[in-house]
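Saturday, quiet lab. Running sequence design on the structure tokens for the scaffold JK sent over.
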């Protein structure tokens, strides 16, 4: 078992003494010598600690190094330790770099043992951070990206309903994240170790849905060659997610109601009832109240299902989440496509995204970003790559969108003015470094994108 894995990024010709020492002492050493290989490797592999080796500062640009490590941090949260000559600390750019980009630095290249000690500390820090991030992701409702009030309220509700066993009815426009919310409820609940079975009621042929949900006995009908367990039984001990519940035929609505009341099911062709322990979460993008009024949905079933109603807000109602989500999908796509030369979104693309009203919600945003990653030939994604047009500002923009844009502009400008020095930019804006990092995260800004 190795002590840890360390990514050695050496600039210029470097004596192999350090890496040989680390390998001989039980570290798994990955070596890269240029920015492109660094990006490729980090897009494909998880690493916790980076070791930057600089022998000669005369050939090093600390600004571009800061961008490279900023990029690395945008993809993964790794901790960097640098081995550099003492002279690096005599230059303002070198000091800035050490303070802003590194976990620790080491100036005595011959003292391998002391360096190893620093690497251990960095590894410990990275492990601790991974635990905090893991807890945050859980607290957050599992990968639910967003900081808007609307999404925070949703996450709050999810945590509350996860503590109960009652049915939940999730409403919200198409693509807004209803299934994600259902999964988050399951994951935060005491049933998290049990199965999560998602059924799209609209996608199963009406003739099959009864046996799909409730199962059937062998010989129950022509073609039923073997006994089959239904999806409700398959979700035993876990959660059954009934998506597009409005599409459930009326006859099946009656059977489902019986199941919700009695907690028992009867397979097709069987006269035996068996008890099943399943929590039901249903979702619909159509208004079920109108469906009830129109006689298309059973009123008693509606009340049974909607004990705990939740509405996932449309993306329009949380426009301030657009950039964070766009950045999230960009990171995901770049990671899977190895299209590492894409640095981010152009200023115009950001404006176009803030202006667009997202009728297809988060799914539309995800699809547009994925397509742009495939289509673009440039380092910054343009409005055209996203299939959007640039708005005429600010007419027609909602106040929240204007505010968000102004906030993003102020942060970008402050960073540009001080050569991406986060401490100085935060000071100029009169906010703390923590707030600055939070706002950069909210707006999907990382130092590599400020140029
Ligand atoms: N807050 C979020 N953070 C990250 N990804 C999200 C978020 N909300 C939605 N998504 C992603 O957007 C896509 C659409 O979400 P989901 O399938 O949950 O929507 P839906 O409301 O069930 O859509 P539909 O009505 O079309 O079934 C999924 O890929 C999901 O992972
Ligand atoms: Mg869905």
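Result came back. Writing it out in full:
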């Amino acid at each position: 078992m190795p002590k840890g894995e360390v990514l050695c990024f050496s600039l210029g010709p470097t004596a192999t003494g350090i890496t040989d020492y680390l390998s001989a002492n039980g570290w798994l050493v990955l070596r890269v010598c240029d920015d492109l290989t660094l990006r490729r490797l980090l897009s494909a592999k998880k690493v916790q600690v980076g070791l930057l080796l600089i022998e000669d500062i005369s050939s090093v640009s600390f600004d571009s190094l800061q961008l490279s490590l900023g990029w690395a941090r945008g993809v993964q949260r790794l901790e960097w330790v640098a081995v550099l000559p003492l002279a690096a600390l005599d230059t303002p750019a070198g000091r800035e770099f050490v303070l802003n980009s590194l976990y620790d630095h080491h100036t005595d290249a011959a003292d391998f043992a002391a360096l190893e000690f620093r690497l251990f500390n960095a590894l410990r820090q990275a492990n601790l951070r991974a635990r905090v991030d893991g807890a945050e992701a859980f607290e957050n409702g599992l990968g639910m990206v967003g900081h808007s009030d609307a999404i925070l309220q949703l996450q709050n509700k999810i945590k509350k309903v996860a503590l109960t066993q009652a049915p939940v009815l999730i409403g919200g426009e198409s693509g807004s994240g209803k299934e994600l919310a259902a999964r988050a409820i399951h994951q935060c609940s005491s049933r998290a170790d049990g199965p999560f079975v998602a059924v799209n009621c609209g996608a199963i042929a009406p003739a099959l849905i009864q046996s799909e949900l409730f199962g059937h006995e062998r010989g129950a009908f022509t073609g039923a060659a073997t006994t089959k367990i239904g999806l409700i039984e398959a979700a035993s001990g876990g959660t059954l997610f009934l998506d597009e519940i409005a599409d459930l035929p009326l006859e099946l609505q009656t059977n489902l109601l019986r199941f919700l009341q009695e907690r028992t099911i009867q397979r097709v062709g069987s006269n035996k009832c068996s008890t099943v322990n399943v929590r039901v979460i249903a979702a619909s993008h159509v208004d079920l109240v109108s469906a009830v009024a129109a006689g298309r949905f059973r009123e008693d079933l509606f009340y049974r299902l909607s004990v705990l109603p939740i509405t996932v807000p449309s993306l329009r109602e949380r426009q301030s989440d657009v950039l964070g989500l766009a950045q999230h999908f960009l990171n995901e796509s770049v990671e899977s496509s190895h299209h590492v030369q894409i640095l981010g979104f152009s200023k115009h693309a950001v404006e176009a995204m803030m202006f667009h009203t997202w009728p297809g919600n988060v799914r539309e945003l995800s699809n547009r970003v994925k397509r742009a990653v495939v289509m673009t030939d440039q380092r910054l994604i343009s409005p055209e790559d996203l299939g959007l047009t640039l708005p005429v500002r600010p007419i027609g923009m909602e106040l929240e969108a204007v505010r968000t844009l102004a906030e993003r502009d102020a942060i970008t400008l402050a960073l540009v003015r001080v050569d991406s020095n986060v401490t100085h930019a935060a000071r100029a804006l009169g906010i703390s470094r923590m707030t600055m990092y939070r706002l950069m995260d909210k707006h999907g800004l990382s130092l590599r994108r400020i140029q």
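Notes for JK: The longest strand covers residues 4-11. Residues 4-139 form a domain with the Rossmann fold fold (CATH 3.40.50.2300). Ask whether to fix the surface positions before the next round.
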